[in-house]
Structures
1.
Amino acid sequence: MQPEVTEPEANSPAKPLLEARGLTKIYGSGPAAVRALDGVDLELYPGEFVVLLGPSGSGKTTLLNQLGGLDVPTSGVIRFRGRDLATASDAERTRYRRESVGFVFQFYNLMPSLTARENVALITELAPDPMDPEEALRMVRLGERLDHFPSQLSGGEQQRVAIARAIAKRPSVLLCDEPTGALDVRTGVAVLEAIERVNRELGTLTVVITHNAVIADMADRVIHLMDGRIQHQRRNPVRIPPRELRW
Ligand code: ADP
Ligand code: MG
């Protein structure tokens, strides 16, 4: 029997979802120029949980903004599913952000006059195949807080609403910039559990920026940034659940 014709890459490892090559970002010009990213090469794979560590000013947020299509590089390439976001049109980059990326920031930016459910629903109206807001809120363990307003929720609960809002469009990429930066340890753990559950159950490529090295133990892979470059990377043999992290 003739073997079936297969794609050449059929037996090769998974393709990266996001890929950076020589990614460079310079803010400003002349003597005031700041080289925030300096030739970053990186591959991020579907379903991975990646923690990005590095001191303040090392380029973490700049890299996350590039991965999320919020900004374009000065030079180099940043590909999503093989398509270069740097040379894509603004409309294409907007579509990438809207359909494929969930963002979580240190501050939750919820609408104070809307309930948890309504805050999530705002986003699902824009997405082609959204989750029910209630389902997204249950995933972050807020199924009992659907009709609470932000002012009736703790900081950690508000951040979990922000996570529900970010994932309700079923993004393939979840980007979190210091998601526990404003929280104490106990509420921070609940937020990390919500992020970890999304990654595990939805298979969302997840990148978490933190300057807390303890959090790195919950990742598949840890990337250290320094002066706009990847200083080193490591792969963890096992992922430690957030509540078992030693603070
Ligand atoms: P991190 O998130 O690791 O603290 P950033 O990516 O925010 O680092 O910043 C990297 C460098 O780029 C820093 O020196 C910072 O001052 C500079 N920078 C970041 N954003 C801007 C901007 N919009 N304009 C000018 N410089 C910036
Ligand atoms: Mg930052």
2.
Amino acid sequence: MRLILLGCPGAGKGTQARFVCERYGIPQVSTGDMLRHAIKEGTPLGQQVKSIMQQGTLVSDDIIIELVKERIQEPDCKNGFLLDGFPRTLPQAEALTHEGVTIEYVIDIHVEDEEIIHRMTGRRFHPGSGRTYHVDYHPPKQAGMDDETGEPLIQRDDDKEETVRKRLEVFHAQTKPMMEYYLKEFKSKGVPQFHCIDGRAKVSEVTKEILAILDGGVSCPS
Ligand code: AP5
């Protein structure tokens, strides 16, 4: 299975990706996680993208497309993958098509901007694994600690309110038009299936809805 999870920053893509990947035994390909890892390791890529991410703007298409092209050629992607945070611009979506990658499902998790600010400022993150929590909505068993390793959780640099607002602005300007690309593809060819779901529901309800689509091929409401 090859699918894309779309949605604004904080819509819940990373949270839901983990459940889907576990269910279908496919890897989560998160461009944000890959870039954060590069920053943590101090690689040339990390040094190049650090300030861009801190500002909440987008890394250049060339860098990102190359990163994803290489990643999806790795053996664990042979039977499918879930793209989280990619594509984010029209050239990125077109590059995927150009590479001959067939996507079966595009799922857009929709949440209004006002809700996002609360979500992001309450988000906590386990740097080692990428596991994500929220202090109110999805708390760890022990406050401030990762459920599986017991290691401390951190707050991401780009989760400060002013940066979140910038990321939302970038999303509306650059990523929303890209979503139209898949909606149009779906309307004209029926592939990939395009589904828009309400991301304001509880984490478990959103998961249920996504798995119902993937398990049962629920028809597109658009
Ligand atoms: P990236 O890491 O991709 O960030 P993002 O898309 O902005 O999305 P997030 O990871 O912040 O949010 P999410 O939707 O995964 O939400 P989550 O599940 O964590 O990108 C970061 C940066 O990298 C970009 O700004 C850019 O600079 C660069 N970059 C990355 N990809 C790029 C690309 N393709 N092109 C160019 N640049 C790129 O949930 C958020 C919080 O809400 C959590 O605390 C969670 O517990 C909680 N939550 C989740 N679901 C619910 C729910 N249903 N109810 C209540 N709370 C919930």
3.
Amino acid sequence: MTGLGDLGRASDSSIESERMILVTGGCGFIGSNFILDWLATHTEPVVNVDLLTYAANPETLASVSVDKRYAFERADICDTAAMKAIFAKYLPRAVIHFAAESHVDRSIHGPMDFVRTNVLGTGSLLEAARAHWKSLGDDAAAQFRFVHVSTDEVFGTLGANDPKFSEHSRYEPNSPYSASKAGSDHLARAYFHTYGMPVMVTNCSNNYGPRQFPEKLIPLMIVNAIAGKPLPIYGDGMQIRDWLYVSDHCSAIRRVLESGAPGELYLIGGDAEMPNRDVVHTICSLLAKHRPGTDYTKQITHVTDRPGHDRRYAIDFSKIERELGWRPSENFATGIEKTVLWYLQNAEWVAHVQSGEYKTWIEKNYKERSATPA
Ligand code: NAD
Ligand code: DAU
């Protein structure tokens, strides 16, 4: 565990031992949006535990790094001793666990990083959380919560006419990423059933919105389009994803934290199923509206498909709607326009994350895919 100097306060005794939450992976896409939303709407402090891998961008949290309610610990969730020390220092009343290796294509190139972080890391974090939970008095232990953030990809793939995924869907992961997330979900479930620890699991669809690392479909297409680069659609582009605006995902997690039942699974979706081709064409139209003068669709190319590519994901989120009163507030048209505008207005953020490592990854992932113009 190491401090982060000017990127955030590694330790501030003034917030230790107050009622607070612990977030892992808070310098990534969803975690950073969650922390910014949390500090804007709650008084309760938050400690962010992040290893700062390639996917992290501490600059995203620069605005809160001087906030007295925010603390940062650079640490690896696989390091159980470091995790135990952090729990002992901050005594969190809840954990929101985002930290993971999250990109499917990277898991195809290097599955063991995913096994390590997602399976071993979640196991190690659960162990540290259990030691902390066991040390609490009866009331505090009963109120303690561990929210494990997972993905719809653990349920595999759907045919065009199959019913949507629900809390009753079978686990059928198809990629090293989704298999490692499935492993972490099973560990989380086991800590509830074996030890009675108040764990809840959320499985959501594809998030999009501000501050997403441009290796994923939507930000990659936006930044490539602006830079005049090819827009590489895998295969026929008719794979369907359900798109969830990131602030809606964050509000759903807050509902689960506040009122979810321990031991339960909650599926979270955006009510926005769409083929990838349509997503890319929508981005091209919005860029033509807000940055006119270019026909961005001319940059679209079809490239060799992803191995084992899941065809369709869709989410039935009626359980969280019925039991916790949550539903998404953005539709895809409003969410994607906000997203495109954010990337247009934050060119500096984009330039900073396109480091040497980013260039190496883009080269590795796309160089061997043959391309044909759309
Ligand atoms: P991300 O890749 O943007 O960020 C992951 C963060 O975790 C980074 O800040 C990274 O530094 C940190 N991290 C990685 N390994 C770590 C380790 N060993 N110890 C400590 N920190 C570590 O991920 P994201 O897109 O924000 O996803 C967050 C979570 O939500 C993940 O668990 C992911 O599986 C899940 N999820 C994501 C989506 C999506 O569309 N992005 C959808 C469903 C579920
Ligand atoms: O469903 C939830 C999951 O969504 C999360 O668990 C993952 O962490 C997240 O990365 C995301 O996984 P996907 O594989 O669906 O997202 P990605 O943005 O990588 O790809 C979305 C779709 O776009 C998918 O069908 C593959 C396709 N694609 C992706 C890229 C990067 C392309 O056609 N071209 C590309 O260059």
4.
Amino acid sequence: MPTTTPSPPGSAAVLCGLAGWVPPRVVTNDELAARLDTDDAWIRTRTGIRSRHVAGPGQATSDLAVESGRLALRSAAGPPPDTVIVTTTTPDRPCPATAPLVAFRLGLSGAAAFDVGAVCTGFVYGLATAAGLIACGTARRVLLIGADTYSTIVDPLDRANAVIFGDGAGAVVLRAGEPDEPGAVGHFDLGSDGAHEDLITVAAGGSRRRGTAGEPSRTERHFAMRGKEVYRHAVTRMATSARASLGQAGLQTADLDHFVPHQANLRILHSVADDLGLPRERCVANVDAVGNTGAASIPLALADAARRGCLQAGDRLLLTAFGGGLTWGSCLLTWPAHAPCPQPERTTP
Ligand code: UT7
């Protein structure tokens, strides 16, 4: 579904705050290899991942979201947000949404607060939602948080998925501003293909799988992914979506300073960059240190790149995501003059 960001004065969403947060516990490939039939060489070669962070006992998605949200708010000068969006595949509970609790814990009671679900594409869908609310004047300032605790849904004995996923949260603050000012987000491309909804699933826990046939099995309760098929879709859909965003803006790949893809697997990121004809060094990647963190992966990668000083004012960034649904999405962002990223309290290794 191609979308065009409206551009009357004062109606663009402009990035003014950014932060990432990961739980302190680091799980290395060797630690996983001690309890699963896998090894560091397989994980690094097939995924590019060296380690990931995992939430502590009792630590829920909202806990991670609050940490990243607090840091993002601290990095952004200006009034408090009137809207809080949390995008996640691992909400604290099926009901209520996670965002109202996060808003309350951040001292933002009264703000509009709701969740967006688009699996690993959630952050780009959330950005589009925030931009739309700002464009129509319903919101003036939005806190958007991508947060996931995949460790709570991945079977720890499933070597295929346990090595890929990590827990984390990333947050941005968006304010109403001008479409041509640095920090503005736009030229969204969003899409889905529900014919392939079975490629990435958690079978139980929703309205489809009720208790009539007894308790859900171990398999039904856990995250399942048909990795090879997902891989192929991920490369194709991300490249196509990236081109669609560039096309809307009348830009070429060569006009990009940085490509910030969903951190699914380093091989996927490089394949997409190759497909686009983009030098791999322009591809922002932190999957080696955090794994695939779902809806958190793009803001975590952005925060990491900003903290390392890789992003300069005026740089042109393309964000592209892909996930279960299937869903995909892209948008463009010009890096703002005042880097909105403080030193995080906890850094990736
Ligand atoms: O965030 C949402 C989007 N997600 C993605 O984009 C993930 C997409 N998929 C992938 O990243 C890759 O498909 C995986 C990393 C999940 C798997 O890599 P692969 O190169 O596609 O491996 P494979 O599934 O084809 O498995 C190759 C072999 C199999 O053994 P046989 O059948 O060849 O004997 C697997 O059983 O590797 C085996 N294997 C493992 N071996 C050691 C699978 N997982 C592991 C493991 N350690 N952890």
